[in-house]
């Protein structure tokens, strides 16, 4: 590639392909990451507004027709139905006060329907030997419970299947996957979880603060701050490109020496 040069007065602009390519790459990276952070800020703002709005709503009765997660998230709900005590789920790697254990999730069939919702019933301590599963007592008759709607628990990276397929229950899962659970159970689930807040505890620890507190999540303002940083770095890249490309004219310098 041939470098090009343009001269204006005492300074000349030397076009160099290597610097230009680096500039284009930096511009593409900075602008794309800046807009990505802006999109994340918008998503967080919508989520924060939704949480604030739905948390203030009155308690409603959960119905099989409540199939959209957005309007239901963070709502306090009442549920009438029957637990599937024979098909319970233990979500692994859950700690309470520093102790290892599981979060217990039990399918609940809504009254007068064939629709199920996963109910987080609480935390149970893991025994000294992982081969043994703790007792998971629960009601076998129809129940009336109250809880708060939340997102399906997520993990950063999903490695392999969430658990072991087959007829063995309860199942220990390393992450929650509703599609996988629907195949294993034969149930049709609503696309969210209800974390039980009222009703008999059966020895489980109900502490859902981590599920609903946003203090560990990056705020929309912080995302906007990162976006501005990326755009500022993009502008800095342009400035540095100009500084490295514009030099004092060697011809003017030579003329001054001869005079």
Could you give the topology of this structure?
Layout: E1 4-8, E2 11-15, H1 17-55, E3 60-61, H2 69-72, E4 76-83, E5 89-96, E6 99-110, E7 115-125, E8 142-150, E9 171-173, H3 178-185, E10 188-198, H4 209-212, H5 220-245, E11 246-248, H6 250-258
Parallel strand pairs: 3-4, 5-9, 7-10
Antiparallel strand pairs: 1-2, 2-11, 4-6, 4-8, 5-6, 6-7, 8-10
Helix pairs in contact: 1-5
Describe the 3D structure:
This protein is α+β, with helices and mostly antiparallel strands and 259 residues long. The protein has two domains: 4-45 and 218-229 and 241-258, no CATH class; 60-212, no CATH class. The protein has six helices and eleven strands. The strands form two sheets. It has a five-stranded mixed β-barrel. A three-stranded antiparallel sheet has the order 1-2-11. Helix 1 packs antiparallel against helix 5 (220-245).
